[in-house]
Amino acid sequence: MAQSKQATILALSGSLRAQSYNTGLVRAAVKHNSGGAAIEVYEDLALLPMYNQDHDNATPPQEVVEWRSRVAAADGLFIVTPEHNASVPAALKNALDWASTEPAGGILVGKHVAVAGASPGAFGSARAQLALRQILASIGADVLAKPDVSVFHCHERFDAEGNLTDTFAISLIGELVDALSARIARS
Fold first, then answer.
1. What is the pLDDT of residues 5-33, one digit of tens each?
2. Would the pTM of this model clear 0.90, i.e. be above it?
3. What architecture is domain 7-186?
4. 136-168: string of b/e by CB count within 10 Å (b at 16+)?
């Protein structure tokens, strides 16, 4: 029996902040990955120009070409979002716009996606995740419903180096990555 290729997950933090707790969640996903999939981290969100349909043609900006290529090559996405004004940050929405419009349109349709997030507030990133799920559903992505990973009071759950230390949050991140890997394996 031939061994199947290991699935690839592209992980993305919607935060541009250098000491972002959400980027810390991405690092935790990589660190606590049980090995069901290889996790690659996309770190160039700040380089994507704001979406402009005038530039979305046969020769879009190189940063967009690279982003679209990485999304298309991945078997699944692991998107971690902070909450900005009860929604997702503009940079994250912008990246999704570039990945969902023509001529790239279609690379997110059916793409398996897991969503998580962190916020210092009492509700974590629950409202941002809801908005992100609505965006992804409208694009046609296959978004996992569970487990729900919304790390509230996140400033209390990371050490001074930005490492996630909360054992419950670590276990939830691991479960979410495993659930995404399992969904990819079943497809």
1. 789 999 999 999 999 999 999 999 999 99
2. yes
3. 3-Layer(aba) Sandwich (3.40)
4. beebebbbbeeeebbbbebeebbeeeeebebee
